[in-house]
Amino acid sequence: MGLLLKEGIDLDLIKTALIAFLSIGFLIVLINYLSIFKTRLPNYSLQLAGLIGNTSFLGIPIALALLPTSTINFTIGFDLGTTLFAWIFGPFFLKKRINTNTNLNFNELLKAILNSPASRGIVGVLIAYLLGLEKVLGDYLWIPARIVIVLAIVVVGTRLGIITNSKTKFFNLNKGIKYSIILKLLIFPLFIFVFSKILGFNLNETSAVVLQAGTPSAVSTILMAEAYKTNQKIAATILFTTTLISIITIPILANMINFFQ
To answer: Which of 21, 28, 65, 201 has its CA 20 to 30 Å from the CA of residue 190?
Structure first.
């Protein structure tokens, strides 16, 4: 809610937020309804880590460094759509049994959406705009938002520290983790690239959304894993590994965009 009020809402932001939100949702459904993908990514921890990117802490700074300021709302919009999907659906998915193969219960899903803090935040933003309070509330809520960011980084650092100090080999990755890494750093950004070409985005607009899609796994995946005691080690391992590998893959994506544009 603080981010929405602070940055404001325009058509570009709404458009790219929808692209991120719907793309992640489509791929989640595709993975769970096609056995060829479900067997490789059997639980929601792997799926969310492979689709929810570090769009806030890494994606936005990269965009600010590489792209003109005119595309900043494309970047922020993609971040917003990703964040909303993560916090609306992530808690619902992670409450389910880790290795369940049952279909989604849409009644439970609807209840989860209505009760989600993210959904309530959107309603709060709309009310603030209707009352003309967006600027005042944006400045006020930006303070606790920054505190939350600091606390989130502490949680992530603690989890990574536990794993790196354990006796198990950190890079001893099972097949599910490997497929999640490939999904996050290769398949998802390529999917968004094709989507952006279909929509007729120009070079900078395409770069904004593809680079966001190609960011490593998000901090929120660890926070949700910790909150629901579900696959914390898997979430932390994917975050750490994708962050390292993205040092190579993000420049490759940027060059690929320029080549095909």
So the answer is: 65
Gap between the Cα atoms of 242 and 237, Å rounded: 8
DSSP H stretches of helix in the chain:
2-7, 11-33, 35-38, 44-49, 60-66, 72-95, 106-115, 117-131, 134-164, 175-182, 188-198, 203-213, 219-228, 232-260
Cβ–Cβ under 8 Å, residues 48 and 224: yes
Angle at 214 between CA 206 and CA 254, to 5 degrees: 55
- Helix/strand/coil for 18: helix
Whether 75 and 214 have beta carbons less than 8 Å apart is answered as no
Give the dihedral sign, CA 107/77/155/240: positive
Q: Which residue has the tokens 């968004």?
A: 192
Q: What CA–CA distance (Å, rounded) separates 113 from 91? A: 10
Q: Which residues are 53's β-sheet partners?
A: 217
Look-up: residue for tokens 């070079």? 203
Residue pLDDT, tens place only, 162-218: 555 555 555 667 889 999 999 999 999 999 999 999 999 999 999 999 999 999 998
Residue 7, classified by CB atoms within 10 Å of its CB into exposed (0-12), middle (13-18) or buried (19+), is middle
> CA 223, CA 236: separation in Å to the nearest integer?
10
Question: Which residue positions in the chain have pLDDT lower than 50?
Answer: 97-102
